[in-house]
Amino acid sequence: METHDLLQHYLGDFGTFQQYTTLLAILVAPNFGVTVVAMTFLMATPEHHCRVNEPGSSGEHRLSPESLNHSIPLENLNGRSVYSSCLMYVQTNETKTGENRTITSCTHGYLYDQSQYRSTIVTEHDLVCERTWLNEMGKSVFFVGSSLGSIVSGIAADRFGRHPTTLLFLLLHLVFGVGAAFATDYVTFVILRALVGAAGIGFYFTSLVIAIEIAGPSKRNAVGMASVASCAFGYVILGFLAYLIRDWWTLQLAQALMTAPFLCYWWLLSESPRWLLTNNRVDEAKAVIQRAAKMNKVVIPHDAIFGETEKLSNDSEEDSSRQYGVLDLFRKPRIRKTTMTMCISWFAEGCVYFGLILASVEWAGNPYLNFILGSLLEVFLSAVSLAAMERWGRKPVIGGTVLVAGTCSMVSAMTKAGFPTVSRGFALVGRGAIGISFLSLIVYTPEVFPTVVRGTGLGLANMCSRLGSVLTPFVSLLGDVWQPLPMVTFGTLCFVASLAIYTLPETLGVPLPDTLEDSENFGRKQLHSDEIKDVSYTNPWPIPTPMKYTRRLVVFYQTARDGDFFRSSLVLK
Q1: Residue limits of the Major facilitator superfamily (MFS) profile domain (predicted)?
Q2: Which of 15, 31, 42, 354 has the most CB atoms in a 10 Å sphere around its CB?
Q3: What is the pLDDT of residues 352-362, one digit of tens each?
Q4: What is the pLDDT of residue 534?
């Protein structure tokens, strides 16, 4: 009996144990959601202009409109005349008369509008004007840290187990998060925030893998999407926290301390029995299965547990003695194709997804309201993704919605100059579409990798997403070259991702692969004798009649779901 057959046969698809484990994964997910988008407020750039030291003043007060006219030059911004954020008039006796006024950069620092933000990392370290690149670099370093965390946590989860990896990264998230709140210089803050991102992605995806591995095929989609929706709800929590807490260090400390209660998962969260069985840790697997049986109120005969797990142990003893790593993702043809396709898709969708999220705060109106409404949209899209994938499968939903996102991005780019409202409307639809696609991709990815390298595969794919996110701030800067260029870039990436997704196998209702050999056969139609009904005379397709050999019948047939033709053979008894 295969691993998935053993677990499903004795424990069912979604009993109390599976529900309990899924709940634990759902509860911890908002912490990652808060972490990954916290930079939206921690590193926000408020309105600002040069600080001017007028006679008899400390230079700390807001300038009156009359003082602004004499101190700050006007500049053209998208057809509007606004006071410059980075330039000022040299203060001389002729300045107030308007004669011989000389323009210079801000020599006395900056004054920041505090109507929205009391303090941010930008205002703390003056990351504006010629230092703006440091702000964008800090955001990119966060995504670099997240990408490293995803691959390190994936390898650790496959080698040492899902449970200890989850707890280790929860602890690291707490320690680094508190440290970032008390960082006194910008470099230290950026490094610690990168480590926070690495830890956050580590505990989120490892706990998600546990929940997906213990759920039956019929509930796997719901389990994965519930965790994704919970992560998106973390965005909503962040929006309210940022509205209530207007200084950056308190906000950073609050989001770090949210992790502390989840250290009790050391006692509450069980190891994945699928991982234990695949890695020949039979005694631990039997203990987890017995605990699950007790929670599910089912009786499993001792001989059944002992006999089946020992058989699985003997069958996989040779494979479980070796350590799997990143190279195993490229060792065989089909898993190599899957890995490369996933990396391309995650890179493209990650860049577009985070690009549109970060852009939403810059839309007109209250930034907190914009962010909260966009986050609620993410939660709603999770429900839409769940229903769509249950109805049509993974590939059509992911590939179709990312194609819609690409089309909307292109239309938004073409209408940005003449019809800005229409452009924003298409950008909003594009964000919704890429949201459905990206959230569905998070559920789909663990399903196509086998248990022995599932964490590593998910980690590598997510690392590519973070690398795409690293480029997001710089893609936005392409608007200085040509205003529609960022949206054109996003649209092109969406089209590439859509083409890539359609080369992968469908996983709806299919048992998860456990070994590298399973992954080579994954997605191929298995032909059984009861599926053949008078093949020689009822062939509905204009293809050659099956050819009879000595003791073998060669059959051409078509799968009901994806319409692909296969050539298979059945030995006649």
Answers
A1: 86-509
A2: 31
A3: 988 887 666 56
A4: 40
Could you say which DSSP state residue 108 is in?
S
228 vs 446: CA distance, rounded Å? 13
**Residue 88 in 3-state DSSP?**
strand
- Alpha carbon distance 485, 477 (integer Å): 9
Instruction: Tell me: do 396 and 444 sit in the same domain.
Output: yes
Mutual orientation of helices 220-244 and 248-257 as an angle, nearest 10°? 150
Residue 328, number of CB atoms within 10 A of its CB: 21
Lowest mean pLDDT across 107-111, 150-154, 359-363, 366-370: 359-363
Q: Which amino acid is at 241?
A: L
Same domain, residue pair 101 and 157:
no
Convert the pLDDT of each residue in 420-432 to its tens digit: 888 888 888 888 8
Same-domain pairing of 135 and 227: yes
Neighbour tally for 563: CB within 10 Å: 7
Yes or no: say if 289 and 18 are a contact pair by the CB < 8 Å rule.
no
Q: What is the dihedral of CA 505, 510, 514, 515, to 10 degrees?
A: -40
pLDDT interval class at 373 (50, 70, 90): confident
**SS3 for 324?**
coil
Phi, psi values for residue 545, rounded to 5°: -65, 140
pTM summary value = 0.78
CA 391 to chain centre: 23
**Domain for residue 108, yes or no?**
yes
Residue 5: which pLDDT band, with cuts at 50, 70 and 90?
low
> Which of helix, strand or coil describes residue 73?
coil
Q: Are residues 245 and 169 in the same domain?
A: yes
Q: Inform me whether the pLDDT recorded for 549 exceeds 50.
A: no
Provide the percentage of residues in the chain whose pLDDT is more than 90. 42
Residue 569, helix vs strand vs coil: strand
Which domain covers residue 154, as residue numbers? 3-44+125-501
Contact, 24 vs 265, CB < 8 A?
A: yes
Mean of per-residue pLDDT scores for the chain: 82
Closest CA to 531 of 558, 561, 565: 558
Mean pLDDT of 195-224: 92
| Same-domain check for residues 492 and 387 | yes
Per-residue pLDDT tens over the stretch 107-150? 888 989 888 889 999 999 999 998 988 988 898 899 889 989 99
- Tell me the angle at which helices 420-448 and 367-392 cross, rounded to the nearest 10 degrees: 50
The helix, strand and coil proportions of the chain, stated in percent and rounded to the nearest 5, come to 65, 5, 30
Domain count, the chain: 3
Of the candidates 376, 424, 133, the one whose C-alpha atom is nearest the C-alpha of residue 238 is 376
Same domain, 67 and 38: no
Task: Supply 88's token pair.
Answer: 């000022």
Per-residue confidence (pLDDT) for residue 498, from 0 to 100? 94
Tokens of 213: 């591995």
